[in-house]
Amino acid sequence: MENRRPVVGKPVPSVREMGNRRPLRDINNIVGAHPYPCAIAKKPMLEKNVKDEKKPALPSRRPVTRKFAASLGNKEQPDRQATAAQTAPPGFDPKNETITIDSDDDIESVDDTDMDALEDESLMDIDSADSGNPLAATEYVEEIYKYYRENEETSCVRPDYMSSQGDINEKMRAILIDWLIEVHYKFELMDETLFLTVNIIDRFLEKEVVPRKKLQLVGVTAMLLACKYEEVSVPVVEDLILISDRAYMKGEVLEMEKWILNTLEFNMSVPTPYVFMRRILKAADSDRKLHLVSFFMLELCLVEYQMLKYRPSLLAAAAIYTAQRAISRCWHWTKVCEFHSRYTRDQLIECSNKMVQFHQNAGGGKLTGVHRKYSTFKFGCVAKAEPAGFLQI
User: Which residue range(s) make up the domain with 198?
Assistant: First the structure.
């Protein structure tokens, strides 16, 4: 949607004029539907030629001390081979030892016995590369995430709240969220908007009994509220009415908006799994593939009512752990990830096993919205990756 704001005085476009936007009954979010078109077929990024760089490339997995990371932006490094030849001890074999650069002029060899100590030193050092970025808030990022962990209970709901609903059930919730994931994709909204939308729906349904005919209205209104909180360019009410096949009037959406806000006491500032995903992905030194597979795992959990029993931070950590295992096929959960997530590998196994099951069944169930979304080139076709079935106990 290039221009979401309607021209004053211009009538609302008909369903025929909607272009690619389809109503709920024609959204194709059931089994057998055709996959999404390639919305954005970006060219693959070319790797940089290290020979043409003035500064040597820094391996992403190499342990880096804070002193060296701070010096990268201020000084050019001398030739690495010449420095190594001058400072290396007799009998030095680079195949058996790991090199860590402590300053521009000093090179220190670290063997396997010292790696644990070096990793302990780097536990608090994942933000050093962003020290010059004011948006990273490195001075108080730890305080921010401490606050998130202390208050994430406010974003949680009772895992059995559907028992208080007389006219809707968990299957209807799954259909609604699967459809909203597709609407979110078509409107090209930000990731945080989707997670806040689902959170608003669950917190509202926990406190209010909603008839079946109003459930979709709750969903589109929750997305409208999340967009107002997270987005720069917000879809107008008429957009949501059109995508809902004109099932509701504008006045009904605005009335539902007031009902939701009053029920939730205008509390939109809750830590969702998204905020924890960003932090733990940084601790995991993620690349694009790990990032996409992790979010694929997490969005599969949004549809599943049974996953409400897990805290947002645990869902985020388990999604990254499962994605790492699907990509690298190993069990290891690094100390850095454990430190910043506050979860050990054993604490993640149960949740991770459920995610593996969702991955295995993602393409064959009745609700395939997440699978088709992550089967597009825009999302790296990561849904077609081999599930980490070996994790299951």
Answer: 148-263
